[in-house]
Amino acid sequence: MSVAELIAAGFAMGGERLVALDLVDTKLLAVDPPVDLIETPEQLAKWWELQHARLPEGPVPDGTAVRRLRTAVREVLDAQLEGRQASPSSVEELNAAAAGAPRSLRLTVTDDGPRAETRWHPEYGGNAALAMIAGETIELLTDEAQLSTLRRCANPNCSMLFLAEHKRRQWCIGSVCGNRTRVARHYEKTKRS
User: Fold this and answer.
1) What string of H, E and C letters represents the secondary structure of the chain?
2) Distance CA 184, CA 192 (A)
3) What CA–CA distance (Å, rounded) separates 116 from 38?
C-alpha cells in the first residue's frame, strides 16, 4: 500500500510499517475541531479494506472498538513522546485488546526450510486484527531500538506519528508536510525582505 493510494482514498497518512501507527493517524488532532477519518461505517470499511493485507483474517470489528483502541494506542504513544507515564486505563485497554484473540506460533516445514507462522485464535473471542494492532503497539513500546525511531511530524499543523527509518526524517510525508513547511518558511523569508 502506497502513500498515494492512502491519500487518494481520503486518508492523509504515510503508510507506516505498523498498522497501529496508521490507525492513530486516522484522527487528525492538529485541526480544530479534530477530524476523525474513520467516523462512519463507510470510512471504517474503506480504511479496513486498505489495511486488509496487513491484518489477520476476520471480520471488520465494531467501529466503537476500533476507535477505543485507537484512543488507547495514541495515548500510550503520546505519553512516550512526552516523557510521561501512560494512563492506566489506556494501558488496560491495550492489554485487553491484545489478549482478546490469542495467538500461537506454528512451525511449518517448506522446501526452503522451517518457517514460523502466527495462528490467531478468534474462537476464544475477541478480534484478531485488534489484538494484532495492540500487540504491535506493545512490541513497539518494549523494543528500545524501534521506539527510538518514533516521531511526531515536525509540521505544527500535523499530528501524525511515524517511525523514522533515518535519523534526519522529521515529516510524516515529506512531499506533503515537508513541502508545506518549506513553502511557508520561504514565504515568511520573502515577506520580510
Assistant:
1) CCHHHHHHCCCCCCCCCCHHHHHHCCEECCCCCCEECCCCHHHHHHHHHHHHHHCCCCCCCCHHHHHHHHHHHHHHHHHHHHCCCCCHHHHHHHHHHHHHCCEEEEEEEECCEEEEEEEECHHHCCCHHHHHHHHHHHHHHHCHHHHCCEEECCCCCCCCEEECCCCCCCCCCHHHHHHHHHHHHHHHHHHHC
2) 12
3) 33
In contact, 13 and 22? CB cutoff 8 Å = yes
36-64 per-position pLDDT tens digit: 999 999 999 999 998 999 999 888 899 99
Q: Hey, which CATH number is domain 3-192, 1.10.287.3510, 3.40.1380.20, 1.10.150.120, 1.10.3300.10?
A: 1.10.3300.10
Rounded Cα gap, residues 146 and 144, in angstroms: 6
Q: How confident is the model at residue 170 (pLDDT cuts 50, 70, 90)?
A: confident
φ and ψ of 107, to 5 deg = -90, 130
Instruction: Kindly list the domain boundaries of the chain, sorted by start residue.
Output: 3-192
The pTM of the full predicted model, rounded to 2 decimals, is 0.83
Q: Is the peptide bond before 33 cis (omega within 30 degrees of 0)?
A: yes
Task: Give the separation between CA 113 and CA 179, rounded to whole angstroms.
Answer: 46
Cα–Cα distance between 23 and 161 in angstroms, integer? 10
